[in-house]
Specification:
2 helices, Immunoglobulin-like, alpha+beta, 155 residues, 3-stranded mixed β-sheet, 9 strands
Length: 155
Amino acid sequence: MVRRSVVWMTMALVLFARVGSGQTVTIAQISGVVSDESGGALPGVEVQVRQTATGATRFVITDERGQYLLGNLPIGPYQLEAKLQGFNLYQRTGITLTVGANPVINIMMKIGTVQETVTVTANAAMVETRNTGVGTTMTEEQMVGLPLNAGRPLS
């Protein structure tokens, strides 16, 4: 009976140790309000944090009052970004979250210029401009089917 109890207790300890080993501490959060230069709230802003140690990212969209909350973040160093079309990109580095941290980071975005990015991805054939010759690649079957003149190809 004692032996069975010891076996059960050992199995329980191993199970609890395995469950706890894969988890990270996620008891920090970042919150704030995003506004423009005049102090007006900006809804629809994408606020993103990137944990610089691991590269993990999370993002939220501000509500109608410009508020955001990024909760359940693992502790560690972070970079914060906010972006909205028509405004300059906001970036802040050097944010370090510790256990129980709840920093309030209010963001003021400045009106920016319209920026366009054109990305071209095409598989167009390259045009040879230095040589006017016409060339092609032949398969093995085409080579075998060429007519021969006394064992030599016709020229």
